[in-house]
Design a protein that fits this description.
By secondary structure, the chain is an alpha+beta fold. It folds into two domains: 170 residues, Transcription factor LuxR-like, autoinducer-binding domain (Beta-Lactamase, 2-Layer Sandwich); 73 residues, Arc Repressor Mutant, subunit A (Orthogonal Bundle). It contains eleven helices and five strands; from the N terminus they run ααββααβααββααααα. The radius of gyration is 19 Å and the shape is globular.
Length: 254
Amino acid sequence: MNLFSFVECANQTQSLKALFDLLVSCASEEGFTEVAYGALTFAEPLRLPGCPPPLVAIKVPPDWCQRYLERKYYIVDPVVRRTPMFAGPYLWDELAKEHQLQACEQRVLQEAREAGLKHGVSVPLFGPSGRISVISFASRCDDADPQRNVKHLNALAWHFHIAFAEIARPSDRVSNRKVSLSEREKDCLRWVAEGKSSWEIGKILNVSENTVNFHVKNAIRKLGSSNRTQGLVKAIRLGLIEFAEPALVTPMVA
C-alpha cells in the first residue's frame, strides 16, 4: 500500500484501533511488524485499552509487552527519554552507539532485542503547544535495514499522527478552505513526495535551488507545518496534490 492509499483509508475511519491496525499493516509490508505510538509531553486522552501513559497504542510480542508494562520500562526507555532531543527519525542502533546510555536504558534495548525487536527506528512527531509524540517501528528479522526504509516509515508515521489528531482532537483538523497553494508550490511538493532534494527539484523545474526552498517554505507555512514531511502529509490529506502528477510537470519560469 502506498502513502496515498494509506491516506485514503485513514480518512474513512474514526476509530483509533482501525487506524493503528492500518499503520501496523503498512509497516509490516516493509518488514517492521512491531509498532508503538506514545505521547511524551502531554496526556493524550484517547488511547487503546491497556496502554498507560505515555503509550497510546502498541503492537509488540505479548510477553515483551507484559514485561515492559509490569516493570514500567516506559519510565527508563531511552526512546521515551531521548526522542525530544531529535529533530527527525533515528535508528535504535545509532542511539546506543552515539549516546552514553544509562545502564537501565541499555537494559531496555537489550531485553527488547532478546524479545525479538532486533532493529528499530523511531520518528519524533511535533504538534502545537509543545506536544511531542513518537512512533517506533521494529523488525524481528536479523537482516532488517531500517536505514533503507526510514523515509517511508517517517512519512507513514506523520500520516498516522495527523489522522489520529483529527480523531482525538477534531479542532486540530486543517480545513482545505483555509489553505491555497500556488501551482509552483504544488509542483515542488509533488517532487518532495518523490523523494527529490531541492537541488534535484530545481534541475527538473529549471529553477534555482533557492527558488525551490522558497516555494517549499511558503507551502509549509500555509499548511501550518513545522517541516517538509508534515507539510507534504497535510497537502496530501487535503487533496492538494496527487501522487501521479509529478511526471506531468513541465519546466516553467518561477
